[in-house]
Amino acid sequence: MGHYVFKLPDLGEGTVESEIAEWYVKPGDRVEQDQHIADVMTDKANVELTAPVAGVVVSLAGEAGDIIAVGSELIRFDVDGDGNAAASEVAPAPATELKVEEKPEQAPQPVEQKSEPAAPVAGGRFVFKLPDLGEGTVESEIAEWHVAVGDVVEQDQVIADVMTDKATVELSAPVAGTVVSLAGAAGDVIAVGAELIVFAVDGAGNAPSVEASSPVVAANPAPAAAQAPVQQTTAPAPQVAAPVVASGEVLTSPAVRRRALDANIDLADVQGTGPAGRIQHEDLDNFIAAGGKLAVAAKASGKAKKTGTTEIPVRGLRRMIAQKMQQSKRQIPHFTYVEEIDVTELEALRQHMNATRTADQPKLTLLAYIMQAVSKVMGEFPQFNATFDDTNNVITRYEGVHMGIAAQTDDGLKVPVVKHAEALDVWGLANEMKRVSDAAKNNTATKDELTGGSITITSLGPLGGLVHTPVINYPEVAIIGTNNMVERPVVRDGQIVVRKMMNLSSSFDHRVIDGYDAAQMIQRVKQLLEHPATLFI
Q: 227 or 356: which carries more pLDDT confidence?
């Protein structure tokens, strides 16, 4: 039998590392070829990894949340045949601690401790390394393991989820085998190419076999036999009769009573620490220092002070969102332009089209019309449909409009992309927007559906508020934000009338977008939305 080391593959688009989102195998598992063994996450998508060979998982390079570099060892298998790894490449399995029961009456004896492998090693080892998940990712976080050490997995079995700064990726076992080790725990960051999981597999695998460690004899003898504990019996202290206090009367001195009366303090509220609960001057001092009557009032009202804290590890998608937002705000000089739009006619058109739509047509929202308006004006203002590589100082403009739609999911913010929005009508835009948004919310979106955006639209729907300052989806240069629609009085032809108004709050990268150009572009979008018939010309 041999050992097979599976390294994190290059997942495309410049990714140099990926995060282990979830393991679906563990050391000791037997996996089949093409079995789903893990999910890894790049900064764009969740990627399922499958076992390249059949065998037994020997070790995993990390746990869910760890970041693995592309080309690093991800998982090891024991496989039939020679595998792809030499014997010298496999580290010995960890020793199992041997517990020795102490017997007080026995003489001290040296204790022999034997080192045992973490998983069966009859066969080869396969090391699976975190693959390259694309788009420049150099590391990924282990989001979740689906396997544990000792599990037998099949090839292509989902073994882990890893997370990049864009999506959660499922990693599957490249081989069948038994999981020997995992490289980290959920939340750990693994570099692309780093060892993620090791399998024991039938055959040679891709890593060398591991010989059991030689028995180790303890250098120091066991401690001398402990003597039986001697129970010490202490005679009970003589009981002192507590002073008798009349019912409802507080035990204290006249001086303390006078002081409490002068301070308007009810001694029934003061905790005494003297003999039999006697209230002393120190107790009165402590009561006043703690807030006195205010503290009593708070206690009586049930509004006690809360002092607890909760520490929440920032992991998975939340950590990726934090990193992307920090990158965008740190590297992009934002400026925001706000304009109000009269959507009275547009809303009337929307309601009419929804009332007359066919069964196979989706329900239209204002967002579909805004997408159509933005994609329409991108031909006139190509500098907005672009990305900026600030490392190489290159602006890339796109002929196709690939519109990101910021979507709130149970896992956090995701930005699925509607590709070629310029080629879709309002019905097609509504259909595609719903499809990719549902996929993002259900964690079924592909990497292609979560990457490649050229401009983004963000909407909070009825929670949109009056104005907001959206953060650009790096490396894009513009983001269009919609606010909620409200009825308010406006002046039209010298008359005060009630109209349905909505603000657009849009942010731009001031390195490549000038304020005048941004104003022109938004005014053109406004013109289309306020005269909705022009959207269909």
A: 356
Tokens of 164: 């990049």
Give, in order, the Cα–Cα distances in Å from 327 to each of 447, 473, 526: 21, 10, 31
Indicate whether 264 pLDDT > 90. no
Out of 266, 389, 425, 514, the active site residue is 514
With a cut of 90, say whether residue 31 has pLDDT above it.
yes
Q: What is the pLDDT of residue 111?
A: 42
506 pLDDT higher than 80: yes
Residues 55/78, Cβ–Cβ less than 8 Å = yes
Residue type, 360: D
- The residue-averaged pLDDT of 366-381 equals 97
Q: 333-536 maps to which CATH number?
A: 3.30.559.10
Match 């107790």 to its residue by tokens. Answer: 283
ω into residue 475 within 30 of 0, thus cis?
A: yes
What's the mean per-residue pLDDT of the chain? Answer: 83
What fold, for 2-91+116-210?
OB fold (Dihydrolipoamide Acetyltransferase, E2P) (2.40.50)
Q: Please report, to the nearest 10 degrees, the dihedral formed by the alpha carbons of residues 299, 304, 307, 310 taken in order.
A: 150
pLDDT tens for residues 225-235?
444 444 444 44
3-state secondary structure of 414: strand
- 159 CB-side CA count, 13 A: 58
Collapsed DSSP state (helix, strand, coil) of residue 110: coil
Torsion sign (Cα): 459, 462, 463, 464: positive
Backbone angles phi, psi at 404, to 5 degrees: -75, 140
Q: What radius of gyration do the chain's Cα atoms show?
A: 34
Both structure tokens of 501: 């108004």
Residue 306, SS3?
Answer: coil
Backbone angles phi, psi at 190, to 5 degrees: -120, 135
Q: Where are the beta strands (DSSP E) in 187-322?
A: 189-192, 195-201, 216-217
Pairing of strands 17-23, 46-50: unpaired
Which helix (H) or strand (E) covers residue 59, if one does? strand 55-60
The number of angstroms, rounded, from the C-alpha of 277 to the middle of its chain's C-alpha atoms is: 53
pLDDT at 296: 59
Q: pLDDT grade, residue 218 (50/70/90)?
A: very low
pLDDT of 457 strictly over 90: yes
Q: 111 and 236 in contact (C-beta within 8 Å)?
A: no
Our answer to whether residue 262 is catalytic in this structure is no
- What's the chain's length in residues? 537
Query: What is the widest separation between alpha-carbon atoms in the chain?
Result: 107
- DSSP state, 431? H
Out of 156, 510, 517, 531, which one is annotated catalytic?
Answer: 510
Q: Which residue has the tokens 């998983």?
A: 119
Best mean pLDDT range from 12-21, 165-174, 298-307, 429-438: 429-438
**Distance between CA 163 and CA 316 in Å, rounded?**
6
Domain locations in the chain? 2-91+116-210, 333-536
Most confident of 20-29, 90-99, 133-142, 417-426: 417-426
Task: Name the residue with higher pLDDT: 110 or 345.
Answer: 345
Q: Is 531 a catalytic residue?
A: no
